[in-house]
Amino acid sequence: LHILGKAYGACLEEIGLCLGFSCTRFRYAPVCTQLEKPIQPCRDLCLSAKNGCESLMIKFGFRWPEQLDCGHFPAEGICVGENKTSSTPAPSRSSAGSFSVVGEDSFACGPYGGTPQLLVAQGGEGTACSGLAVAHYYFTIASSAWWVVLCLAWFLAANRKWGAESIAGLAPYFHAACWGIPALLSVVVLVTNSIDGDVFTGICSVGNLQPKALLYYLFLPLSGCIVLGLFLLACGICSMMRIRTYIKLQHADVDTNIRKLEKLMFRVSGFAVMYVLPTAASAAVLCYQALQMPLWLDTLYTLRCLHPDRIKFGFTMPRTSCNQRMDTMPPGPELVLIFIKYLCQLIVGITCAVWICSAKTVASYQKAYARIILRRAAVATDEH
Q: What are the TM regions of this chain, as residue ranges (predicted)?
C-alpha cells in the first residue's frame, strides 16, 4: 500500500494487519522525488489492494481507511503502478490485423510461451517467423550457388574450351544443385531450430542468437562459395590471358580480336567485383557477429538483470546475483555492423538486377512470354 506521509499515523493501526498478512502484493513506500507534491498511487493500484485486503480487515473489526479512499487517487497521468481504470477504446479488428503484419517487430517478437510480454522469437516459434527466415536463408544460399555455377561455366568455356551447347546441356544439373542444396539446408535449419528473431531489423533469420548456427549455416557456405568461385574465375582469366598472348603472336586482325577479348574479360571481372565485395563484407560481419555473440548475450543479460523494472524480464533474484556490474560489462553490438550486413545483402541484389538489364534480357523475356502465354513456337534467329 502506498501511504502518504501525513496520513500514515492515522492509518497505521488499520493497515498493520494488511502488512502482516500477504493479502496483496501492492505494498509500496512513498516515492521520494524532487517534486513539490508526492506521486500518488494509481486508482487501479488502490482498488487491487482494497479488493484483496478489505474483507480481511472487516473480519478483524476494521474498516477501510478513509484516507485510502480510491476515489481520491488519480485515474490517469503520473502515478505509481499501471493504471487500468481509464477507458481506452479497443482497436478494430482490421487495424489490429494490420499492426500484426506491418508492426515494428511483428515477425521477430511476439507473446510466446503464454506470457503477455513481447519476447524475441526463438526456435522457429510462429509460422510467419519461420516462413520469413526460410525464404531469406533459401535465396541467400541459392544466390551463392548460382555464383559458383556462373564461375564454373566461365571456367569450362575459357579453360576447357567447351561450347555454348555443351554448357547449356548441363542446365538441368545446375538448376537441381542451385535450388536443391539450399532446400536441403533450409530443412536442416528448421529441424535444428536455428531460426530466431533479429531485434535490430524486426525480421526472422538464421543464427541471430546462435553463434554455431551462424557459422555453420551461413558463414561457411557463403565463404566456401566465394572461394570456390574466385578460384574458377581466376583459372578462366589466366586462360584468357594466354589466348590474348596467342592472338598477338598471330598478327591477324589483332586489334579487333583483342578488343573483343578484353571487353569480355572486363565485363566478367566487373561483375565478379560487384558480387564478391558485398558478399565478402557480409560474410565478415557474420563471422565477427558469431565470435562476439557470447559477449553480447552476457551484456544483454546484465542490462536486463540490472534494469529497474527487472521483474517483467523474469529476474526475481537480488541485483547482487547478477553476473557483472554496469561498469564492467563488455560493450554491446555496434549497430553500424548490422547496417553493413543488410546493406551488402541488398547491394548484391541491386547490382545483379542492373547487370542483367540489357537488350538480350528483354528479348529473352519476350520469347518466353510468346512461348508460354501466346503458345508460339520458337523462331530460329542468327545471333551475332
A: 137-158, 170-195, 215-243, 264-291, 335-357
What is the rounded CA–CA span in Å between residue 196 and residue 211? 12
User: Sign of the C-alpha dihedral, residues 16, 18, 21, 26?
Assistant: negative
* Element of type H or E holding 206: strand 204-206
CA distance 167 to 157: 8
| 265 — pLDDT class (breaks 50, 70, 90) | confident
Q: Note the Cα 331 to chain centre separation in Å.
A: 20
Q: What is the average pLDDT value for the chain, to the nearest integer?
A: 76
Q: Which of 28, 126, 41 is nearest to 79 (CA)?
A: 41
C-alpha cell at 379: 523462331
- CATH of span 8-72: 1.10.2000.10
- DSSP of 229-295: HHHHHHHHHHHHHHHHHHHHHHTSSHHHHHHHHHHHHHHHHHHHHHHHHHHHHHHHHHHHHHHHHHH
Residue of higher predicted confidence among 50 and 162: 162
The C-alpha cell 472487516 sits at 58
Q: Are strands 195-197 and 204-206 parallel, antiparallel or unpaired?
A: antiparallel
Amino acid at 53: C
CATH for 127-372 (1.10.540.10, 3.40.50.1400, 3.20.20.70, 1.20.1070.10): 1.20.1070.10
Q: Which amino acid is at 213?
A: A
